[in-house]
Amino acid sequence: MAVTVRVFTSSGKPASGKRVSVSFDGFSRGMASGSTDSNGRCTFDNDPGNGKVYVDGKEVFKGRLSGEVPIHL
Which of 19, 20, 34, 52 is deepest in the core (most CB within 10 A)? Predict the structure, then answer.
């Protein structure tokens, strides 16, 4: 399975070129990073789980990371 973070601007449009990191709870899960595409999506090849999402270094979400996680800046 994969986890996709989808980032939107304050006006509701997809935010491209944003640096996204996910940090999963648990010592063996670790952290992964990438950048959003033109649709505001950044996909990680990780199993769902609890963790945090960071956009451009700022924590923006804490909770269940599963499927598509929408982030509104």
Answer: 20
Do residues 7 and 37 make contact, with C-beta atoms less than 8 angstroms apart?
no
Q: What is the CATH number of domain 3-72?
A: 2.60.40
Hey, which residues does 44 pair with through a beta bridge?
Answer: 3
Residue 7: which region, alpha, beta or left (left: phi > 0; alpha: psi -120 to 50)? beta
Tokens standing for 71? Answer: 């982030």
User: DSSP characters for 19-66?
Assistant: EEEEEESSTTT-EEEEE--TTSEEEE----EEEEEEETTEEEEEEEE-
Cα angle 58-15-5, degrees, rounded to a multiple of 5: 65
